[in-house]
Specification:
Strand content: 15-25%
Number of strands: 25
Number of helices: 20
Structural class: alpha/beta
Radius of gyration: 28 Å
Largest sheet: 7 strands, antiparallel
Distance between the termini: 99 Å
Length: about 625
């Protein structure tokens, strides 16, 4: 425990405060420098893991003058493989024959600009070639020997087409201390059993949380108030009754148990399996599997399980669950879990597209850059096939280095209307974590039940917003409870829990206005965040240390982002841009008259309306006199 505290102090002392241009807490001293020599390896263990590369594996971007059909993934790799095979004798050295394993990832737009060229090391001949190419073909190339890399670069075809080449790095998952509560989700009470048969809608949701207490973190983000606001907007017909269908949220993670009773209603089921470049992807796509001319294979089962509905290996014998196995199911439960089964999701009306990106590396679950790229290209294909249904991506993982290929693809998705939301990481550090720290993404840090910044959560000027992530040091009841594979529920903490809370809240906003662009949705999240999290009266003023004054421009900025997520505030700021009342009969309060449409309400003083108002009483008088004459 003392060593952990000391490591935190050493890390903080060497992390520059971007606000005051000096360390946030301690200046490095000779004493600390000596300590780093002795225990620095231990303190940097997490960082070293997050910065690990997949051995001798690279992401290669080749220019492509020809327009390649997105689903025809094999074209660039086959051309490169044929070139290598036809001249195999030339690509030999004393170590081996150059026979790399080439896997096509897909085609992306070439949007490399001056800022990208300054931040990344491109090939010396690439600058002139960038302007010639409208598209980039991405490949994963695995070499058998280090010496093969230079041989590869010497191939004339590679020299002519290569734009950049970067190591295939690995990311860590951002969830810690997963403790099982129940291996089977149960309704618990007769009232719950009765309500389980009903499909979730906003009225029933509010009724449920009137009877049963919501989780502690609901009040932190004003979620019940947001539900009531959603209901009032529904009653005002800003959204159709019983039509709270939210967007599809893509979860890039370790796979999801789609048979979990608390999740199965919220899993997006692909009506056209195989049409988006992944085989058998009815229940998601596992992009870590290499398919023939495909991005992967479905279904996206939880890591290390064999079938949907399986428990995580060793769960019954241990008091904790493997994060690599339960991670994706946990995240999905936070987004859209069915409250009838003890899985409290923020947006039960949203659907989740499961994309498995976690693979086994050195007996641990890791996320390779190549898998992230395949997942993002798969999302592009899904939106082309099904009409831009995926609007949000949740990524509860990260690493310290930025990938140019991932940066380009996230930027392209953002321009097409897809918002990328990511966890800031669990190292209690100011170091930027990617892809969450990308300019167009939303980076999420975590607070505990007390409202204090969670002791593990990363922070910094690059963080965008804070949300509940749990803090087990405040007690077991201060964790985030969600679903686990095999039908159970568990408690956990981490920025991996905070990120899906933000993603699902963004989904609630899209229910009100599906036309919001990714940039508008991002701004709505940040503009509505509550800066009260920095207030001296909030959490006994603990978070005020992360709220500093900028001397040069005389404005304040926080290291926990714009503030604490506020679901009610974001819904208040959202109104359908295409909103128009239906043409059904309704009564306008205060006037007692019946109008046929919103157009009539706007033009009540028009001549036609005046004539109608005059004719109605005259006709009633005429009918009354005529009826009395008959009598």
């Amino acid at each position: 425990m003392a060593l952990e505290f000391l490591c935190m102090k050493i890390n903080n002392s060497f992390h520059e405060n971007p606000i005051k241009n000096k360390p946030l807490r301690l200046q490095p001293t000779l004493y600390q420098a000596v300590l780093v020599l002795f225990i620095g390896t231990h303190c940097g263990e997490e960082r070293e893991q997050a910065s690990h590369n997949l051995s001798k594996s690279y992401i290669v971007a080749l220019k492509s003058k020809e327009k390649i059909i997105p689903t025809n993934l094999a074209h660039p790799s086959e051309q490169l493989s044929a070139t290598i095979k036809s001249k195999e004798r030339r690509f030999r050295n004393r170590v081996s024959t150059l026979r790399p394993i080439i896997e096509p990832l897909g085609l992306i737009k070439n949007t490399i600009n001056t800022s990208f060229q300054g931040n990344f090391h491109l090939m010396s001949s690439a600058t002139a070639q960038i302007a010639e190419s409208s598209d980039l073909s991405l490949l994963r190339v695995d070499f058998k020997h280090e010496a093969d890399i230079n041989l590869f670069k010497s191939i004339p075809y590679v020299q002519e087409h290569l734009i950049f080449m970067e190591p295939n790095k690995l990311s860590n998952l951002h969830l810690i201390n997963i403790s099982p509560i129940s291996s089977k989700a149960k309704s618990g009470t007769p009232m719950k059993d009765k309500m389980m048969l009903e499909s979730p809608n906003i009225v029933k949701l509010i009724e449920y949380y009137t009877i049963f207490s919501p989780p502690w973190w609901f009040s932190k983000i004003h979620l019940i108030e947001a539900y009531r606001l959603l209901k009032s907007k529904q009653e005002a017909r800003e959204i159709p009754a019983n039509k709270e269908q939210g967007p599809v949220i893509a979860v890039l993670d370790s796979g999801i148990d789609y048979r979990h009773p608390g999740l199965k209603k919220g899993i997006w089921i692909n009506p056209l399996p195989g049409a988006s470049g992944c085989h058998n992807d009815r229940y998601g796509c596992d992009v870590t599997k290499k398919g023939h001319k495909s991005l992967g294979e479905g279904p996206a089962l939880p890591f290390s399980t064999q079938n949907a509905g399986d428990l995580c290996p060793g769960e019954l014998e241990q008091d904790h669950i493997s994060s690599s196995c339960a991670h994706g199911t946990h995240v999905a439960g936070i987004i859209m879990g069915d409250y009838h089964f003890g899985v409290t999701g923020v947006c039960p009306f949203c659907k989740v597209l499961s994309i498995k990106v976690v693979e086994e590396v050195d007996q641990k679950g890791k996320v390779a850059d190549s898998s992230i790229l395949k997942a993002l290209i798969y999302i592009q294909n899904i939106n082309r096939t099904h009409g831009n249904i995926v609007r949000i991506v949740n990524a509860s993982f990260g690493k310290y280095e930025q990938s140019l290929a991932i940066s380009l693809l996230v930027k392209e998705l953002n321009e097409s209307g897809v918002l990328f939301i990511g966890a800031s990481g669990n190292e209690n550090s100011q170091a930027r974590v990617f892809p969450a720290a990308l300019p167009s993404s939303v980076s999420v840090t975590a607070i505990g039940k007390s409202g204090k910044k969670a002791p593990y959560a990363n922070f910094g000027s690059w963080v965008d917003i804070a949300a509940p992530g749990g803090n087990l040091k405040e007690g077991f009841e201060a964790a985030i409870i969600s679903a686990s594979p095999g039908g159970g529920i568990h408690a956990a903490q981490g920025t991996s829990s905070a990120s899906p809370i933000v993603a699902a809240t963004a989904g609630l906003s899209l229910i009100l206005d599906p036309s919001l662009t990714a940039g508008q949705l991002r701004n709505a999240l940040l503009d509505s965040a509550s800066p009260e999290v920095y207030s001296p009266s909030f959490a006994n003023g603990y978070n005020s240390q992360f709220y500093s004054q900028q001397d040069d421009i005389n404005r304040k900025s926080g290291l926990l982002g714009a503030g604490l997520l506020n679901a009610e505030a974001i819904l208040k700021s959202t109104r359908r841009s295409d909103y128009r009342q239906g043409d059904s009969l309704r009564i306008k309060g205060g006037c007692g008259a019946i109008f046929l449409s919103e157009n009539f309400l706007i033009s009540r003083s028009s001549p036609i309306m005046l004539i109608i108002l005059i004719l109605i009483p005259m006709s009633s008088i005429w009918w009354g006199r005529k009826r009395s004459s008959y009598e």
